[in-house]
Write a structure and sequence with these properties.
The chain contains 13 helices and six strands. It is mainly α. It folds into three domains: 75 residues, Dna Ligase, domain 1; 82 residues, no CATH class; 112 residues, no CATH class. Strands 1-2 form a two-stranded antiparallel sheet. The radius of gyration is 31 Å and the shape is elongated. GO terms for molecular function: lytic endotransglycosylase activity. This is Endolytic murein transglycosylase.
């Protein structure tokens, strides 16, 4: 009887100790992280790191007070082999339980960047490098041979086949995407946004998708006032119908590789397939990545008989039907 009581006492004591231990572990796991900074702390879990390695890294970064609690909680939850690699961002109001859950689910930190309408691939590459998302040189090298869709065609006269097909938008990406994966993300977004209805409209106008994108890039670089986009698109289409050179200043700026306030006659005589003063028809490729407004302007241009336009000092365009009217307008806006 005494032996039985002794065993029972030890069992109760063991259960009490284990319960106390588990309660303490759960309590500790539920407490907010305590570190000095009020800003989020970012850590990188490398591929192949064990639960012990991760615990040591978190302790080193001051995200947990000791590694034992972390390792015990991870093993108790059966998550020792479920913690995923990636870049994570932890805030001071989080607790160890939340951190472990994020690591197990792979809730990595995302980096955000915005591609403005009218950016070129060179500008996008520089932007991504400034955000520490990609290497500019590698991005441009990948773009030289990137053709994920049939309508993105290779052309010896074009530096980047995908120029014009990287959709301007705000993107959220995890750390570690390759330059090709970033290009694919942007071209996939273009393909998704250029809907079947839009493709039908292009066919109805006798334009290929590529031709629409080239024209849209000219509109994007010429337009400063939103409502002028369909008018500018209308002028370009009218000039094409009448077998007139497009004479787009934006193509000369593209050739120069930098913005120039006023172009000279000599600038318009630069030998280049992109020179729409010297060459008839469209340039061999887009000169920028146009936004949806410019693309829609080409698909739904203003019904107009304008053939000329010129911008005043405020960037507002003035449109003319004849060359004589155009000369008068140039004189007026120059005053």
């Amino acid at each position: 009887m005494q032996l039985s009581n002794s065993v029972m006492t030890k069992s109760i004591l063991a259960v009490a100790v284990i319960s106390f231990f588990i309660a303490g572990l759960l309590y500790g796991a539920a407490q907010p992280i305590s570190f000095n900074s009020s800003e989020p702390v970012t850590i990188i879990i490398k591929q192949g790191m064990s639960a012990n390695d991760i615990a040591a890294l978190l302790r080193q970064q001051g995200l947990i007070k000791n590694t034992v609690s972390f390792r015990l909680y991870v093993h108790w939850q059966g998550l020792a082999n479920s913690l995923q690699a990636g870049e994570y961002s932890f805030t001071p109001d989080m607790n160890m339980q939340k951190m472990i859950a994020m690591l197990a689910k792979g809730e990595v930190a995302y980096r955000q960047f915005t591609i403005p309408e009218g950016y070129t691939i060179d500008q996008i590459a520089a932007l991504l490098e400034s955000k520490q998302i990609a290497n500019a040189a590698k991005f441009k090298a990948a773009a030289k041979n990137f053709q994920p869709f049939a309508y993105i065609e290779a052309d010896a006269k074009v530096s980047y086949p995908s120029e014009g097909f990287l959709f301007p938008d705000t993107y959220r990406v995890p750390r570690g995407l390759t330059e090709e994966e970033l290009l694919r993300l942007m071209t996939n977004e273009f393909d998704r946004n250029f809907t079947a209805a839009m493709r039908d409209k292009a066919k109805q106008r006798g334009l290929t998708m590529r031709e629409v994108v080239i024209l849209a890039s000219l509109v994007e670089k010429e337009a400063r006032v939103e409502k002028e986009r369909p008018l500018i698109a209308g002028v370009f289409l009218n000039r094409i119908r009448q077998a007139m050179p497009l004479q787009s200043c934006a193509t000369i700026q593209y050739i120069l590789g930098y913005p120039k306030a006023e172009l000279s006659i000599k600038d318009t005589e630069i030998p280049s397939p992109y020179n729409t003063y010297l060459n008839m028809g469209l340039p061999p490729g887009p000169i920028a990545n146009a936004g949806m407004a410019s693309i829609m302007a080409v698909l739904e241009p203003a019904a107009t008989d304008y053939l000329y336009f010129v911008a005043d000092s405020k960037g507002v365009h003035h449109f003319s039907r004849t060359y004589e009217e155009h000369l008068i307008t140039i004189e007026q806006v120059s005053q």
